[in-house]
Amino acid sequence: MTTDRHPDNHVLGESTPDGAEISGTQQDSHQYPITPETPTPPVSPPPPTAVGTHPYGQQPGTWGPAHGSGGGFTSPLSGPYATGHHPAAGYPPAGQYAAEPYPDGPATPPPGPAGPLATRRPSMKPIIATALIAGLIGGAVALGGNALVDHTTATVPQLAAPPATTAADVHPGSVTYAAQAASKFTADIEVAGAQGTAVGSGIVLSPDGYVLTNNHVVSGVGNTSAIQVTTTDQKTYRASVVGTSPSYDLAVIKLQNAAGLTPASLGNSDGLQVGQQVVAVGSPESLSNTVTSGIISNLSRTVTAGDEQGSAVAVYNGLQTDTPINPGNSGGPLVNLSGQVIGVNSAVDTGQASQGGVQAYGLGFAIPINTARRVANELLADGHATKPVLGVTGSLSESGTSGVEGAQITNVSGDGAAAAAGIKPGDMITKVGDQRVTNYADLMAQILTHEPGSTVPITVSSGGQEHTVTVKLGSAVDNTQTTVPSNGNGNGGTGGLPFP
Fold it and tell me: Is 69 a catalytic residue?
């Protein structure tokens, strides 16, 4: 590397303007014979530095554009340094800083007190100061600045490495602990089919390779599709579908010839609180074992999720989190700081970005683990799951004439649970249990939070009067999605959040 020096700072063995060679202690000074008898011609001060020129003679732009209307140069923090170049990039070649001669005339020193050593020209002091300041900022100039000090007394710093320590807290209750725990039972899933490759994540349920994921991750599996799963130890397995639950957007797959895997620890989503810290692990954009953290933003949100075309819209009740979730996180775990799974990441709200509007951030949704546990156990046992049935139909386009907010009922099944409880067409359901219902999607999502055959209090507004009835929910095999209807006969959809 070329070492930059100030123009007036010669080193040992270098010739001075009068041809003398510097040696011994003359490293930082010139020594000339003092001849009082010969008049010394006046010395003119050096020309001032031109506006917009670096003190070393570089033109503006070497370090970046000049600031302000008065020209000048910018600090090394702009220009080439702003794009990540090495600090030494863009400096003049060797020789740029060659010593400048003294004014024409006899080889006599500049005016100053007589003595064995001549005094330097005062006009160079500001330039020396500039070189030192630039050296502190720019790095490469600092090497040149070193020539201005006495190397016989300077000490060279020694950069010692401290003992390796674990700075982060890895005890239960920390994000670090949760991330390490969840990474051990999170798997990457790829489904290759005729329409392309779907990428998602999964949660290992057993050492022999049962894995929980989202239904929409594996819903495209057909005769020509193949599921490939990579576990945290970087082993890859072929897998097959054990069973799916479209209404809850859940599925279980089985890895072939797997053994010794680390199963997840499942928590209890009923004890969650808003503001509680959580961690998500998955493979967003195929980046395996990506960890993000955030909080629980809400405990009960109606999620209407579908693909980018707004079709295949599923409706369920989910946890809301501001933990960053992206395409590829689907089916991965949302865990508490004890490393227990409390949700299955499933959907994200991007706002109006797909229609050219405002992009939304921090609106992710997960299926509560208590719901996922029940569904997964049924899929493991029977290959299919069940869902509760109320026995009514309605639509988002229907609104009550009484001004009461709720889910307008258009039809009631004659042998269903609602009919048995006395609910009639035209009634408005305003609550399921203690959860407020504002539309038909809310009603469906709240019903799905209960187990088939369970008894639920439902608040009904009829003729402007509210009353509560007790409904024993029915049961049905979950082989189709619970969708948002656009009209009273239950057909059609309204679009929904994209699956991540």
Answer: no
